[in-house]
Amino acid sequence: MTDEHDETTPGGGSDGLWRWLVGGLLGGAVVLALLVAAYAIGHNRGEDAARATSPATTAPAATEPAATTPATTTKPPSTTTTTPPPETAPIEATPALVARGKTLFTEDGCAACHSLSGAAGAGPSLEGAAGRTVELDDGTSATADDAYLERSLTDPDAQIVKGYAAGIMSAAVAGHKFADNPDDVGALVAFIKSQK
Q: Which of 15, 124, 127, 131 has CA atoms 20 to 30 A from the CA of 112?
């Protein structure tokens, strides 16, 4: 015969009821956590898809290689070894653009490598970065003007700051496709310029 109050079934006693309720709540919490995680993953994938289908990325290429180029055609040798980045108009750090840049800085994980306080990290600190002279790993220096900052986002390995390794930032930002998102680049540059 069993006890009058069986604690292993709901309603079999106050301890059993308590365990049953706690188990149900914990199970519900796990399900809720999984739903929230699935939403976050789907939301981020949706943003990536929206970025990938923005007008800048869906426009046809201006030039495509000809499929019927004769084998006897030769190109004259190039006389230039490197092409400087194109001149860009200065970016005005308006409050709205700075706010958008701050959001991107936070959401895109920039703070994982770049501090805003001058502290060392995997990447240079962005405190006072805009306008300063930057010593590069090849022994040259550059002024961190708008064009430099834009190029640092769109082609991170073009000019590596002395003391930092190539490949780290390019791997970190590859999914953001900054070269195809000039609005995001402008917002981030505006945010960097605001960090005095």
A: 131
